[in-house]
Amino acid sequence: MPTLTQLKNELKKLSDPSQAKILQRFFKTGKGEYGEGDVFLGIKVPVLRKIAGKYRDLSLKDTEALLNSGIHEHRMVAIFILVRKYNREENKKEIFNLYLANTDNINNWDLVDLSAPHIVGDYLLDKPRGILYKLAKSRKLWEKRISILSTFTFIRNGRYEDTLKISEILLFDSHDLIHKGVGWMLRELGKRDRDTEEAFLDKYYRKMPRTMLRYAIEKFDEERRRHYLAK
User: Fold this and answer.
1) With CB atoms counted within 10 Å of each terminal CB, which end of the chain scores lower, N or C?
2) Contact, 217 vs 186, CB < 8 A?
């Protein structure tokens, strides 16, 4: 049975200080930035995925402990393991609950984006979704991003109502990462149902943040883009 100590030691051996500096700048770890204080080892995502596959049988308890680490790559590997476990195991509710109990540690956009649709979105696909609205109204940046990114799974299954409702809740949020997340999901919705996306935009495009709008209309033709940008 793989151990948490073995996993951490393997990641330590793969660390790259020069790459760590690049990642710390990219993920905004400076004072007052959204990733303030996060620590990186400097390991790229494909390598982390491979490590997660190797340690896929790590106990759920140790996976949660890894998710509580102050090192970004530790948390990323924990996220990848949780997604693997969720896809393989019957007790999906346990993993869903563990995920929601640890949102303070799913605390950067990459951690959210690579997990929320696969765990939260998938679990809620055939269940009541009140928890998403609670997250959308949270004061915590990452819980709000989890709420909208989780709806990616609904979009892929032709269900758009929650994406639109949560987008309305987050429409006037102050953070750029929420603007990008909402715009991205509206764009994905529009790939499948342009009329529904445009109906939403027609109602809100004059009010929504510019970044959100630009993300939402990225796949539109030039004429339609000009129309929505000329507010």
Assistant:
1) N
2) no
**pLDDT (tens digit per residue) in 42-51:** 999 999 999 9
For 173, the token pair is 């949020």
Residue 41's nearest CA partner among 66, 5, 12 is 12
d(CA 90, CA 198): 39
For 34, phi then psi, to 5°, come to -65, -25
Residues 55, 52: Cα–Cα separation, whole Å: 5
Rounded Cα distance between 79 and 67, Å, is 7
Given a cut of 90, whether residue 89 has pLDDT beyond it is no
Question: Three-state SS for 187?
Answer: helix
Check if the beta carbon of residue 7 is closer than 8 Å to that of residue 66: yes
Summarised one tens digit per residue, pLDDT across range 105-116 is 999 999 999 999
